[in-house]
């Protein structure tokens, strides 16, 4: 569900025409709908209203401060995967007691920052990390709440790059090893407090079964840990619920909620969820302008001013994004590759796609670009990163300025020239 649609021939983000935003802000531009963001948060919150729960929006999907602030104001917690994301969360006014910290390679400075910020807990992904957290917490005279991210060996049936809960993946600790690590942590590590079990099996998952299979393994482990005297209060199901890019039919959070509530009945736990994509994916579009059109002997090309540096998903995963005309003037359609200006054949937004016939200067809307869009963007080919806009009803504001040329070389300088050797000393050869 989202609030992007045509009014007559004009494509709108809530009550603002995309054409107006494009005129005032330029292209490429990411456009987010605030109403869609709050609706998605509330859909999750309501799905678990019957049980103690905490929604921790996964910042990496879209880390713009205005997006984070919108969720923080709804009462959302946050799932972070770096010190940088913690910095953002705090700037957005997050309640740090609702922050969980995931990721396989947390550095010492990041762990220290998180401990000093009094986050709720760390999702620990290796025995070495557990010892590092214990050591740093001891130095800071703190107790660190921890969950172990368990690798349940469940196939989420999604793209291999975004499957994370299989034994061959780098994430988490396998169940038996996790059991031993929990017991060891309780007995021997004085500055970590095991309080949850965490499990995140992948992304863009469109069925409930993989989640429920993972949940079953988690609750089995919970029972064994409680029998060992561990006070496990939280089950963190991670994120991963898919969205509709094309024809996918992912379960609604309410259906997912019913299944999880059934699977955890009577356990007396607080449920944690770390949704990213399903909160922001369909709440954002990328508007771009046609620069040229070109006809090859085999293909039509529509060359636009957004590229793989702005939206990497098609190049990276071969993913589908629907493409709409910002002004639906023409009924005629063409089959074309929609490509960017970057010097890579992998730089495309759509391949062999039936789209409305367009000409240079026309604007297009690349749909479902709110998740892993701007947050994965780069300056490749020394392209300034796009502007970001948030629409709220009939108003909009620029929530991140388009980068300018000076931003592109910020912090760079020529290496200093080699100093001439001083007289009387052994100089460099
Ligand atoms: C990426 C990630 C998420 C969010 O995943 P989505 O598929 O965007 O919901 C949640 N938890 C962890 C640990 C992640 O790495």
Key phrases:
single chain; 8-stranded parallel barrel; 9-stranded mixed sheet; Lyase, Ornithine Decarboxylase, Chain A, domain 1; globular; binds pyridoxal-5'-phosphate; 429 residues; alpha/beta; 12 helices
How would you describe this structure to a colleague?
The protein is globular and about 70 Å long. The chain has helices at residues 18-25, 34-47, 65-74, 83-91, 108-116, 127-139, 175-188, 209-227, 253-263, 277-280, 313-317, 405-408; strands spanning 4-7, 10-13, 16-17, 29-33, 53-58, 77-80, 99-101, 121-124, 144-151, 173-174, 192-198, 234-236, 270-273, 284-295, 300-304, 323-325, 333-339, 348-356, 363-366, 387-392, 395-400. The chain folds into two domains: 4-31 and 281-403, Lyase, Ornithine Decarboxylase, Chain A, domain 1; 34-278, Alanine racemase (TIM Barrel, Alpha-Beta Barrel). With 429 residues, it is α/β, with parallel strands linked by helices. 28% of the residues lie in helices and 25% in strands. It contains twelve helices and 21 strands. The mean pLDDT is 95. Strand 20 (387-392) and strand 21 form a beta hairpin. The strands form three sheets. Strands 4, 14, 15, 16, 17, 18, 19, 20 and 21 form a nine-stranded mixed β-sheet that branches. Strands 5-6-7-8-9-11-12-13 form an eight-stranded parallel β-barrel, surrounded by six helices. Helix 2 (34-47) runs parallel beside helix 3, helix 2 packs parallel to helix 9 and helix 7 (175-188) packs parallel to helix 8. The longest helix has 19 residues, at 209-227. The protein binds pyridoxal-5'-phosphate (PLP). Residues 58, 60-61, 79, 81, 102, 200, 203, 238-240, 274-278, 371 line the site of pyridoxal-5'-phosphate. Residues 58, 60-61, 79, 81, 102, 200, 203, 238-240, 274-278, 371 line the site of pyridoxal-5'-phosphate (PLP).
């Amino acid at each position: 569900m989202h609030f992007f649609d045509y009014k007559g021939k004009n494509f709108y983000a809530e009550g603002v025409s995309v054409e107006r935003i494009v005129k005032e802000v330029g292209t490429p531009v990411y456009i987010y709908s605030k109403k869609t963001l709050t609706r998605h948060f509330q859909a999750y919150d309501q799905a678990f209203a019957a049980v103690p729960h905490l929604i921790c929006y996964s910042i990496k999907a879209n880390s713009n401060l205005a997006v984070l602030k919108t969720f923080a104001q709804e009462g959302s917690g946050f799932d972070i995967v770096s010190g940088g994301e913690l910095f953002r969360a705090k700037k957005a006014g997050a309640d740090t007691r609702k922050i969980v910290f995931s990721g396989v390679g947390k550095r010492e400075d990041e762990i220290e920052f998180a401990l000093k910020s009094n986050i709720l807990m760390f999702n620990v992904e290796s025995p070495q990390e557990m010892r590092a957290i214990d050591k740093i917490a001891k130095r800071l005279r703190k107790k660190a709440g921890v969950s172990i991210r368990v690798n349940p060996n469940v196939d989420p049936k999604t793209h291999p790059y975004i499957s994370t809960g299989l034994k061959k993946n780098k994430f988490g600790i396998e169940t038996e090893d996790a059991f031993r690590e929990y017991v060891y942590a309780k007995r021997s590590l004085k500055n970590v407090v095991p309080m949850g079990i965490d499990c995140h099996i992948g992304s863009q998952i469109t069925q409930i079964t993989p989640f429920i299979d993972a949940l079953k393994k988690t609750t089995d482990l919970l029972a064994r840990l409680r029998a060992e005297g561990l006070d496990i209060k939280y089950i963190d199901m991670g994120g991963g619920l898919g969205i509709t890019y094309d024809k996918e039919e992912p379960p609604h959070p309410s259906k997912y909620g019913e299944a999880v509530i059934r699977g955890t009945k009577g356990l007396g736990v607080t449920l944690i969820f770390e949704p990213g994509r399903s909160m922001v994916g369909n709440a954002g579009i990328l508007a771009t302008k046609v620069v040229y059109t070109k006809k090859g002997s085999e293909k039509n090309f529509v060359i636009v001013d957004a590229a793989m540096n702005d939206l990497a998903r098609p190049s990276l995963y071969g993913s589908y994004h629907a493409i709409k005309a910002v002004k639906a003037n023409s009924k005629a359609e063409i089959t074309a590759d929609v490509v960017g200006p970057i010097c890579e054949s992998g730089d495309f937004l759509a391949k062999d796609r039936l789209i409305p016939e367009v000409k240079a200067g026309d604007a297009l809307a690349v749909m479902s670009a709110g998740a892993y869009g701007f947050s994965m963007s780069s300056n490749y080919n020394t392209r300034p990163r796009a502007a970001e806009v948030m629409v709220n009803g009939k108003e909009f504001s620029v929530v991140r300025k388009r980068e300018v040329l000076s931003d592109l070389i910020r912090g760079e300088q020529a290496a200093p020239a080699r100093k001439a050797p001083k007289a009387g000393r052994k100089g460099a050869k």
